């Protein structure tokens, strides 16, 4: 019956998960609209975009470790390996730095120096960052101080953590960055 919800329109969690990101074998999935959780599209499109199903679309994207990276520069540079790419449907993305798995580490600047950092989207969009300034002593901070939420357009986006240090330099020890769709 047109205009009424029919049995084939009702989906169990198992049916949605089993469909994964293929959006196949779900009758009428292009006639049902999903408007929960910031989604406003057909069920079929929500499955294709990875908003629903077991495609792993909500899994965080994690960069490789930067290792022991020494920074001495007067201009912004992307820290080795601290880039990550994520595909979104246009919703918010949480970006943060953290210790590489199994390690406890830090970001350090020496006495009377400064580290200025910024998050960069797609090589040109400056999302802002942080300024860490040490006076008279070495300053060490956990990587988690570097975090931000971005709301990009739908599509694939590459994020990078960039920094520059003053004359004495800074060290990033075994840091990774993470992009997580919210």
Which key features would you list for this structure?
Jelly Rolls; four-stranded antiparallel beta sheet; 2 domains; elongated; 182 residues
Description:
By secondary structure, the chain is mostly beta strands. 7% of the residues lie in helices and 43% in strands. A four-stranded antiparallel beta sheet has the order 3-14-6-11, with no helix packed on it. A four-stranded antiparallel beta sheet has the order 4-13-7-10, with no helix packed on it. A four-stranded antiparallel beta sheet has the order 5-12-8-9, with no helix packed on it.
The span between the termini is 37 Å
CATH architecture of the largest domain: Sandwich
Using the coordinates above, name the CATH class of the largest domain. Mainly Beta
Q: What is the average per-residue confidence, as pLDDT, rounded to a whole number?
A: 76
Q: Level of helix content?
A: under 10%
| Outline | elongated
User: So what's the oligomer here?
Assistant: single chain
Task: Briefly note the structural class of the backbone.
Answer: mainly beta
CATH topology call of the largest domain: Jelly Rolls
What is this entry, summarized?
With 182 residues, the protein is mainly beta. The protein has helices at residues 13-19, 43-48; strands at residues 33-34, 41-42, 61-62, 68-71, 77-88, 93-99, 107-109, 114-121, 125-133, 139-141, 147-150, 155-165, 170-173, 175-181.
């Amino acid at each position: 019956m047109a205009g009424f919800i029919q049995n084939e329109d009702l989906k169990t969690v198992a049916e949605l998960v089993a469909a994964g990101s293929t959006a196949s074998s779900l009758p009428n999935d292009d006639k049902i609209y999903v408007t929960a959780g910031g989604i406003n599209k057909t069920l079929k499109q929500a499955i294709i975009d990875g908003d629903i199903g077991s495609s792993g679309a909500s899994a965080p994207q994690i960069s490789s470790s930067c290792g022991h990276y020494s920074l001495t520069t007067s201009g912004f540079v992307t820290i080795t390996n601290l880039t990550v790419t994520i595909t979104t449907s246009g919703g918010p993305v949480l970006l943060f730095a953290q210790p590489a798995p199994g390690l406890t580490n830090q970001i350090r600047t020496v006495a009377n120096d400064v580290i200025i950092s910024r998050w960069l989207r797609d090589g040109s969009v400056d999302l802002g960052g942080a300024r860490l300034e040490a006076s008279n002593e070495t300053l060490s901070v956990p990587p988690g101080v570097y975090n931000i939420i971005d709301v990009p357009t739908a599509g694939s986006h590459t994020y990078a953590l960039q920094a520059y240090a003053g004359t004495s330099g800074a060290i990033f020890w075994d840091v990774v960055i993470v992009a997580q769709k919210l």
